[in-house]
Automatic annotation (TrEMBL), chain A:
One protein family per Pfam: CbiQ
Spans through the membrane: 35-51, 63-82, 153-172, 235-256, 262-279, 299-317, 337-355
GO cellular component: plasma membrane
Nucleotide-binding found in the keyword field: no
Full protein name: Energy-coupling factor transport system permease protein
Subcellular location: Membrane
Key word Methyltransferase present: no
Keyword line: Membrane, Transmembrane, Transmembrane helix
Topology relative to the membrane: Multi-pass membrane protein
Automatic annotation (TrEMBL), chain B:
Main localization (coarse): membrane
Name of the molecule in the record: Energy-coupling factor transport system ATP-binding protein
This protein's record includes keyword Flavoprotein: no
Bilayer topology: Peripheral membrane protein
InterPro entries named in the record: AAA+_ATPase, ABC_transporter-like_ATP-bd, ABC_transporter-like_CS, ABC_transpr_CbiO/EcfA_su, ECF_ABC_transporter_ATP-bd, P-loop_NTPase, Sigma_54_int_dom_ATP-bd_1
Length: 368, 534
């Protein structure tokens, strides 16, 4: 089935990209080795560059990179400002600012040791890598398609979110338009409140008109066509959902609170989830609706997801074999080492850059 | 296909019914034009067909409406989605998704059509409407005509037996409107769809229509072929008015029909119409090299334009040709990256907006953006205050422009034409000598257009320079002395109305198409005919 059609351009299932990115992020969470972290970063960036479209959300990847840099800088700065003297290798002697007695335990400036700065750097790098991995998922998976891939019981919620997402640009547009129009009328005739009202009222009236028209259009196009649902079915679904949710609540509480009997913890949580899922399914089953070009889980998706999960598994496996390599010691300072096994594991994450189809060319954005 | 039996409809709290005891039946694959003045009940009648009236709007409906044998009383509009496709006035407001392909599929998803069938129908519809190359485009980036065709497509994919459209061409330029109408005609011929459409600009639709319903506004409906109905309607497209004037029988419905009968009339007319118009005065606004850019897109490309006193100038051109941008730049509120604008020795862009509007007034495309108070009287009082005019001057202006608007009415409850008059009065209270109007004829019926024509003519006669951006050829022929046509931000033709309008088939009025020889409007012909013949 694969063969010739495998590499034809198409958009992959957004879930596959999320699995891949989460795998990388989990892998990153297992290590503080800067070489490994930087490799994971490089892998994520390379795949993003190779497989992203030029849609706005894909272009936002740069923002995640900035955010990562910010995280690292802050971590290191904090170590320098708030007491960085653990360890013996002092690299910077700053005058310590004396603080009153009530602030005991907090140190401002003072000696800075290489160990604590390095600790901050490793820690920050790990967090930054995880954030950037999530950014990569965001850049590669179309958020709207992710919404579309939601289970059918949540269809209404998904539609509401999509409509809301398209309302914001419209609202912004009408604010701009009305403010311009306001200028035509000479701007301010009085107090500031007056001016605000002159913008807000037309914008809201416009938004209300629009939403009424949208509602009429959706209604006449069959939105919410439930078909006939027997009262009994409704009752059953409702009961299932509520019982399930109560079970989940009790289970979560019991799991977190050690003093409750153990049989209220895992068993109740698990059965609650099962009951709620059954309720979900019955709710979804009564919805007679179909999907245009549904997202399909094909071989390429499996490859993407497997490569991400592979990275996570490799990091877990090496941590039991060779833990010191993953978390370089901060007690005895040394150049962090890199062994072949985790490096190979991380490089597994590069697979999607080569073994997936290219994304569909993006829509032209030139206004007609 | 559609059967109305004794249908009456009241909105809550209103004594007069909008529709009263209407019985009619529309057959399969008919194209029906619904005409009538604003507020006469066109939209209400359309809404009854799929149950939006009264399920969505409220009100009280008597009698029964059924489509393909199913009564709309039996369920909400969504249960009729597979039978009746409804396309609203503003296609953009009705879009649910954001790309063309998804929008076409949306209705089918709701109906639960199987994915392979959906895929096939989307492709068929893309081809049928000639929008295949737009399939992955974002809906917001499409032009008005393209959006309208996508909106039609989005209901067509559900294979409805009936298609209902509310003013599908009112916001479109003549070429785009023709595209949309040709598409509809094709649906009627190829698929046997029944099409019911309401439209103010009857002249565009009549050549395609099999049948015409006219709502005079008293709750009744006149039903018949267009030729029958138009024989006595108070408003009619120019082609019919010309036919009435010349006493043609049967009344011509298409330019081709009219041409066949036009021979005798042509021979009675003098060689050339008398186009000597009022003497235009000195330039009030002069601009040169105006450039407007939005990022990479150039909207206005170095335009030189003088607006002269006592002259009505019409700016025409397809959607997106830079008409609005030019008006906003001339007024000074919009962006302008280059060139100069001089009014009364000053550049309105450099002045504070309160001073700029005393030089140049602008009524924007969505005129209601300017209104924000609860009553007409409040708006007028605020306008006097903002303009620094004598108290009561805006009200006086309004009384002159559109007499008989109650001062305690809410501006949003006014008809399009009345609201336009109110905004015009608000803008005129600052007493600018240059008045710019952006698409004022949008959504106006013949009566409202005639009174707008009266208003702008009197404004020009008082010594103002009036500039109107519009698609409406007939309106331009009635009021304008000079026309410029814009394309891609440049002026491509500029000259007296008669010259520009007769020069190109896209901008020729119906009378020009029938008679040729520089004749533009029915009133010109009427004035030129020897008195005995009239």
């Amino acid at each position: 089935m694969a063969g010739a059609t495998y590499f034809l351009p198409r958009d992959l299932h957004p879930g596959a990209w999320w699995l891949w990115a989460l795998g990388l992020a989990v892998g990153a969470s297992r290590t503080t080795n800067p070489w490994l972290l930087l490799t994971i970063l490089a892998v994520a960036c390379y795949v993003v560059v190779a497989r992203r479209t030029d849609a706005p959300w894909a272009m936002a990847f740069r923002m995640y990179l900035y955010l990562g840099a910010l995280i690292v800088t802050f971590r290191v700065l904090f170590r320098i400002i708030f007491g960085g003297a653990e360890g013996s290798t002092i690299i910077l002697r700053l005058p310590e600012i004396p603080l009153p007695a009530w602030a005991a335990g907090i140190r401002l400036l003072g000696d800075v040791s290489a160990e604590s700065v390095l600790g901050g750097l490793y820690d920050g790098l790990r967090l930054a890598t995880m954030v950037i991995c999530l950014g990569a998922a965001n850049a590669l998976a179309n958020p709207k398609r992710l919404l579309k891939a939601m289970p059918s019981a949540l269809y209404e919620v998904g539609t509401a979110v999509i409509v809301a997402m398209s309302v914001f640009p419209q609202l912004a547009e009408s604010v701009v338009r009305v403010r311009q129009a306001r200028k035509l009328r000479g701007g301010h005739g009085g107090k500031r409140f007056h001016a605000l009202r002159a913008v807000v009222i037309p914008v809201l009236a416009d938004a209300l008109d629009r939403s009424l028209r949208l509602a009429a259009s959706m209604d006449s196009r069959g939105y919410g066509r439930a078909g006939v649902v027997a009262a009994r079915t409704r009752l059953v679904t409702g009961t299932l959902m509520i019982v399930g949710l109560i079970g989940v609540c009790v289970g979560v509480y019991a799991t977190l609170d050690g003093s409750t009997p153990r049989y209220l913890a895992a068993p109740v949580l698990f059965s609650g989830v099962v009951v709620a899922l059954i309720g979900f399914r019955t709710a979804g089953a009564r919805v007679k609706r179909s999907r245009y070009r549904p997202e399909r889980w094909q071989l390429a998706e499996v490859v993407v997801a497997a490569s991400g999960i592979g990275v996570a598994v490799a990091m877990f496996a090496t941590s039991s074999v060779d833990p010191t390599n993953l978390n370089p010691s901060l007690v005895t300072l040394s150049w962090p080492m890199l062994s072949w096994l985790p490096l190979g594991g991380v490089l597994l994450g590069l697979v999607p850059a080569f073994l997936t189809p290219l994304p569909q060319p993006e829509l032209e954005r030139v206004p007609a | 296909m559609i059967d109305l039996d004794g249908v009456s409809f009241w909105y809550h709290g209103q004594p007069e019914p909008v529709l009263f005891d209407i019985t009619l039946s529309i057959g399969e694959s008919e194209l029906v034009l619904l005409a009538g003045q604003t507020g006469a009940g066109k939209s209400t009648l359309l809404g009854t067909i799929n149950g939006l009236v009264p399920h969505f709007t409220g009100g009280h409906l008597e009698g029964s409406v059924s489509v393909a044998g199913v009564s709309t009383r039996s369920g909400p509009p969504r249960e009729f989605a597979h039978l009746v496709g409804m396309v609203g006035q503003d296609p953009l407001a009705g879009f649910v998704t954001d790309t063309v392909e998804e929008e076409l599929a949306y209705g089918m998803e709701q109906l639960g059509v199987a994915p392979p069938v959906m895929r096939r129908r989307v492709e068929e519809t893309l081809d049928l409407l000639g929008i295949a190359e737009l399939r992955r485009r974002a809906l917001r980036t499409l032009s008005g005509g393209q959006q309208q065709r996508v909106a039609i497509g989005s209901v067509l994919t559900m294979h409805p037996r009936v298609l209902v459209l509310d003013e599908p061409t009112s916001a479109l330029d003549p070429t785009a409107a023709e595209d949309v109408l040709a598409t509809l005609a094709r649906l009627v011929h190829d698929l046997g769809t029944t099409v019911v459409l309401a439209e103010h600009r009857m002249e565009r639709v009549i050549p395609f229509a099999d049948r015409m319903l006219y709502v005079p506004g008293d709750g009744s409906v006149r039903d018949g072929t267009p030729a029958e109905v138009l024989r006595e309607t108070p408003v009619a497209p120019p082609i019919v008015e010309l036919g009435r004037l010349a006493g043609w029988d049967p009344l011509p419905m298409t330019v081709r029909d009219a041409r066949k009968q036009a021979g005798p009339l042509r021979s009675r007319l003098p060689e050339k119409p008398d186009h000597t118009s009022a003497v235009v005065g000195e330039p009030l606004l002069s601009s040169s090299g105006v450039v407007v850019r939005y990022g990479q897109t150039v909207a206005v490309r170095g335009v030189d334009l003088d607006l002269r006193a006592r002259e009505i100038l019409a700016i025409m051109g397809r959607n997106g040709s830079g008409k609005s941008s030019l008006l906003w730049a001339l007024q000074g509120s919009g962006p302008r990256q280059g060139g100069t604008v001089q009014v009364d020795g000053a550049d309105p862009k450099a002045l504070p907006s309160a001073r700029a509007r005393k030089l140049v007034g602008l009524v924007p495309q969505t005129a209601s953006d300017l209104l924000y108070l609860e009553t007409v009287a409040d708006e007028c009082a605020a306008a006097d205050l903002e303009a620094g005019a004598e108290p009561g001057s805006c009200e006086a202006l309004l009384a002159r422009l559109a007499p008989g608007i109650a001062a305690d009415r809410h501006p949003r409850d006014l008809s399009e034409g009345q609201r336009l008059a109110l905004v015009l009065a608000v803008q005129l209270s600052a007493a600018p000598r240059v008045m710019l109007l952006d698409e004022p004829t949008r959504g106006l019926d013949y009566t409202a257009k005639a009174s707008l024509a009266r208003i702008v003519t009197s404004l020009a006669a008082e010594g103002r320079a009036v500039t109107i951006a519009t698609h409406d050829v007939e309106f331009v022929a009635t009021v304008a002395q000079r026309v410029i046509v814009m394309a891609e931000g440049e002026i491509v033709s500029d000259g007296p109305t008669a010259e520009v309008l007769t020069g190109s088939p896209a901008f020729a009025t119906q009378v020009a198409k029938i008679l040729g020889g520089g004749w533009l409007t029915v009133s010109e012909v009427a004035a030129a005919l020897p008195r005995v013949l009239r």
